[in-house]
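Page 37, continued from 36.
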């Protein structure tokens, strides 16, 4: 396998980086943004595009559709049709449009918590109501509460379910059986599914995610799937995503919405980056997944040895670790602020993900191993100091 340089430390300060716009001495391990250079094939494609020197309006070529379809067939054994795809500038804009176009003001949207916090914004900013279907947390693991889910779906004003697959922040891959149950219940109660599958390629070696639309016709023709190369290849700044919609009527409605909201036109670099990623990025991604597993295993071993009071929820996807701090505190907002102030370690507050997130912190390990070790040292020191204040 070709060698890639994930151990390389790249200084991201003074690059207008959202993640690294912090105080000197702080270590950001929060927002889902990797500290690795993107795949060489993408970098080369963007350099070629930049060297052309003219950056006018861009179109979406057929090569974009072909690259995405080829990737999902090759990587996930799911054959989508090229005309099912619509370009969008991001997964969140796509979810935002889906809420506005596929529901009415006052409708209920089911969200399974703890989950990516921006889901709430997409619902509540448009006068819809969140119905929280809390995931069950038992023996240090999450599973779906199907009895409560059906109750929420059966509400006459419920029209949409936001599904996070794989799950962020818990890093869980939903099984085919679980997704089939979700699809059947949503079909039964006339609830459309919007599946956010942005983290789908970031599975641990030996694990594969299941595309929601691949499970059954109930899932395929009653869903909008949001896809992107942004998390996988660390190119969120290119603002390139896709919505995959097999049902023609739903697709046409979403197409009008995306265009009306002006989020359906690519910038000058989006096409080159996306096509290169999904056409040539396999080897880089496989190497990345192995590197991330080493990081995850490093964290697990460190916690077991140095911080047994913190439980790492077993994750099989994403580079985000969900740390159960319930033996330390039930107010992880305070713990997060304390760690940042006393050690410079900047983690995500679990409470922002709702559900039982007040017991958790989220750690991003998509950085060189040296930075992971630095973060763990800071964490251990910070927890030691915190426990002395109790």
């Amino acid at each position: 396998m070709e060698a890639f340089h994930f151990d390389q430390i790249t200084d991201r300060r003074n690059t207008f980086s959202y993640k690294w716009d912090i105080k000197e001495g702080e270590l950001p391990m929060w927002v889902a943004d990797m500290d690795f250079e993107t795949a060489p094939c993408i970098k080369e494609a963007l350099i070629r595009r930049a060297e052309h020197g003219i950056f006018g309006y861009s179109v979406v070529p057929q090569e974009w559709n072909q690259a995405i379809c080829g990737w999902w067939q090759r990587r996930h054994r799911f054959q989508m049709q090229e005309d099912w795809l619509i370009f969008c500038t991001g997964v969140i804009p796509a979810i935002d449009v889906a809420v506005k176009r596929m529901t009415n003001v006052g409708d209920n949207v089911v969200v399974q918590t703890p989950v990516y916090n921006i889901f709430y914004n997409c619902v509540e900013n448009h006068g819809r109501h969140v119905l929280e279907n809390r995931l069950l947390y038992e023996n240090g693991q999450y599973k779906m509460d199907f009895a409560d889910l059906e109750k929420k779906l059966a509400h006459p004003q419920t029209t949409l379910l936001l599904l996070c697959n794989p799950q962020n922040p818990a890093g869980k891959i939903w099984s085919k059986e679980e997704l089939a149950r979700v699809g059947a219940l949503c079909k039964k109660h006339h609830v459309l599914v919007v599946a956010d599958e942005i983290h789908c390629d970031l599975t641990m070696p030996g694990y594969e995610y299941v595309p929601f639309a691949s499970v059954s016709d109930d899932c395929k023709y009653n869903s909008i799937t949001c896809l992107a190369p942004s998390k996988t290849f660390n190119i969120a700044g290119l603002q390139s995503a896709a919505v995959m919609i097999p049902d023609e009527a739903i697709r046409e409605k979403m197409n009008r919405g995306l265009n009306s909201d002006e989020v359906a036109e690519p910038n000058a670099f989006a096409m080159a980056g996306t096509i290169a990623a999904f056409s040539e990025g396999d080897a880089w991604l496989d190497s990345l997944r192995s590197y991330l597993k080493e990081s995850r295993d490093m964290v697990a071993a460190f916690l077991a040895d140095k911080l047994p009071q913190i439980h790492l929820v077993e994750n099989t996807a994403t580079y985000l670790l969900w740390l159960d701090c319930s033996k330390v505190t039930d107010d992880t907002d305070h713990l997060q602020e304390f760690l940042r102030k006393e050690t410079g370690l900047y983690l995500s507050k679990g409470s922002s993900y709702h559900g039982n997130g007040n017991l958790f912190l989220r750690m991003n390990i998509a950085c060189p191993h040296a930075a992971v070790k630095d973060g763990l040292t800071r964490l251990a020191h910070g927890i030691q100091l915190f426990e002395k204040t109790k």
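The CA atoms of residues 56 and 94 lie 24 Å apart. Flag for discussion at group meeting. The first strand starts at residue 27 and ends at 28.
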